[in-house]
Amino acid sequence: MDQIIRTSARDETRRPNEPGWSEPDPLHEHLRRVVRDLIEHLIEAELDEALGGRRYARCAVGGRRGYRHAARERTVTTSSGASAITVPRARLFDEHGDATQEWHSQLLPRYHRRSRAVDETVLGADLAGTNTRRMQRALQPLLKGAPLSKSAVSRVMRTLRESFEAWRTRPLDGEPIAYLFLDGIAVKVRVDRRVQSVPVLVALGVTPTGEKRLLALHLMGNESKAAWSALVEDLTSRGLPAPALVVMDGNAGLRHAVGQAWPQAAVQRCVVHKLRNLEAHAPKRVVDEIRATFHAITEADNERAARAAYARFLRTWRRRAEGVARSLEEGGDELMTFYRFPRSQWKCIRTTNMIERLNEEFRRRLKTQGSHPLEASVLRLLFALYQSGQITLRRLDGWYDIPRVMKQHRQVAA
Q1: What is the pTM of this model?
Q2: Most buried of 10, 139, 206, 257, CB within 10 angstroms?
């Protein structure tokens, strides 16, 4: 009863002549007619240009490049809903003057039933984890009764293949990178009818204006020296300039590949990865103490204080747990490289945490489907989540100090 009363109260507060949710919107219907007329006008103008003259227009000898013949109707779904469009047909003359070639519109290609904006909306809904049934209901105000089958969604998703191939082979020489983050993320995929965890090697760059750019994704069987060398060689072969700083974990093969490709670049070891390694070498009862002494190194006020904390760490743990001390010495000075950069950037450039953002979104996306992606589609899915805006990467903290860093880097390189 209370719900009925509340519903009635809402109905009474509706303005006069205001349509309800289930009633047709006259403004939307008018806009749809305007859009339909505009599309037909644009296609007619495109055909006039292809034929060399308007309908019934007199043209000079040799000026007419074809002739019209009949028309057909096509249902096209735009952001204003589904509309029946009358599409003209025509034939174009070949070099011998025979009308053998069928004219096709570039504005509305063959077999296209939806505008690019609608396809992008469908793609975004699919990447967000919405199944086809829910997608049809959620996009009903946009589709306005237009069909949306599983095969239609699959065709939209297949367009990712061409976009991904163009992205993964694009040249990088015109894309200056100040900082480069390299790390591997573990993803679960279906390989040979079994779900297993495989590494995806990720290269994420930061531009001189602070924007973060996904540069490369490589699916590998492991994080070996050969695997990381292949990724670094791919970046250099596409023309990526030497960055001022490379942030990475402690993989020996990765460190060798970076040293070979960009010997002038500064290297920062991820302090989060190193802390995990230290904890693995110690009993659980001293983990909190190890964290405190390690944070004294990575969260010091300056490099001098950090080096003093580094020396204290070694003196303390060389007596109590030699494996912990050796693990810290393995990282060495590259754990404190970030102190040579602007203070405003310290928090961001001492770890590879920003790459974990890709992995978090990928895992969230997989929770909405009943099966894991195949090995061939996992990279396209990761790329699509990034390219469609499902994964947003904000500017690097302290981005305004990057030009000063790049100027110093160029002076050292010269």
Answers
A1: 0.70
A2: 206
